[in-house]
């Protein structure tokens, strides 16, 4: 199915609607992943502990043995990044803006430049800044040591609705334009981010070949082959509590694919994803190409 369907899905991406309408058989990623050894990230330990159920792993924290936990550099989960009132108001403000259909049962609101990942082309397009009602979220990043100096150049609201079978398939965020820190603010609903080691499928996929050009600037060094071997045959589960901040960087960002499984969307979930430029567009050869985007990213417009 290479054509765009009325639901917004295309290619291998599907939702419950098109699976029913076009009789598309969807293999269960959860069933595949549950054949692997499951480890869940304990927010309090800052370590991966045995278990698929992230809620149960958090409850078992007092029984965890730190010397038996598995570290993976590049994960930050900060609970209560938003207050309950802020989360409710942010959802109301986002719902005052139009939503666009997206793939795999999702809806989105995208504020950022036009990008062509395959041709590595960047243009301003209709990007005119961000909604003023979301400005405080970006400003609060400065209170998080890991995010100091983070300059948002794309902000994307994503809605996951269980009645649509919403999910996002395993992927690595593009490495040509989007920088190291992959930031998500959860403003409605609990969910889980699932990580699996990335296995090279085709040359140039995700533009991962460019990482070598700025690897010495990463906040956390990439894992060696021997270190990566520790994660073979394993699936990693990261809790994404309502109102929390999630950041992937270093090895967790570049050496693992991340996904949101359909089964982990049990209620309407809305999150806001934030992206920064790669070093080439911050202080490298393409800095001038990024200037128009940086200029627009300073604007926060009022919703009428």
General description of the model:
It comes from Drosophila mauritiana (Fruit fly). One of its GO terms (biological process) is demethylation. This is Alpha-ketoglutarate-dependent dioxygenase alkB homolog 4. By secondary structure, the chain is an alpha+beta fold. It has a single domain (74-301), classed as Alpha-ketoglutarate-dependent dioxygenase AlkB-like (Jelly Rolls), CATH 2.60.120.590. The protein has helices spanning 16-21, 29-33, 54-59, 84-95, 135-140, 225-229, 250-254, 279-282, 287-296, and strands spanning 37-42, 47-50, 75-78, 100-101, 106-111, 114-116, 121-123, 130-131, 154-160, 168-171, 182-188, 191-197, 234-240, 245-248, 256-260, 269-275, 300-301. The chain has a seven-stranded antiparallel β-sheet with strand order 3-14-11-16-9-5-4. The chain has a six-stranded mixed β-sheet with strand order 2-1-13-12-15-10. It has a two-stranded antiparallel ribbon with strand order 6-7. The chain is globular, with a radius of gyration of 19 Å. The termini are far apart. The model has no long low-confidence stretch (mean pLDDT 95).
Assign the structural class, choosing from mainly alpha, mainly beta, alpha/beta, alpha+beta, or little secondary structure.
alpha+beta
Total number of helices: 9
Approximately how much beta-strand content do the residues carry?
Answer: 25-35%
How many individual domains?
Answer: 1
Q: What is the CATH top level name?
A: Mainly Beta
Give the overall shape.
Answer: globular
Q: How many individual β-strands?
A: 17
Q: Over all CA atoms, what is the radius of gyration?
A: 19 Å
Enumerate the strands of the largest sheet in spatial order, edge to edge or round the barrel: 3-14-11-16-9-5-4
How would you name the CATH homologous superfamily?
Answer: Alpha-ketoglutarate-dependent dioxygenase AlkB-like
What is the terminal-to-terminal distance? 40 Å
* Residue windows where pLDDT falls under 50 for at least 5 positions: none
Q: Characterize the main sheet.
A: 7 strands, antiparallel
Order of helices and strands: HHEEHEHEEEEEHEEEEHEEHEEHHE
The overall average pLDDT, rounded, is 95
**CATH architecture descriptor text:** Sandwich
CATH level 3 topology: Jelly Rolls
- Indicate the percent of residues in helices: 10-25%
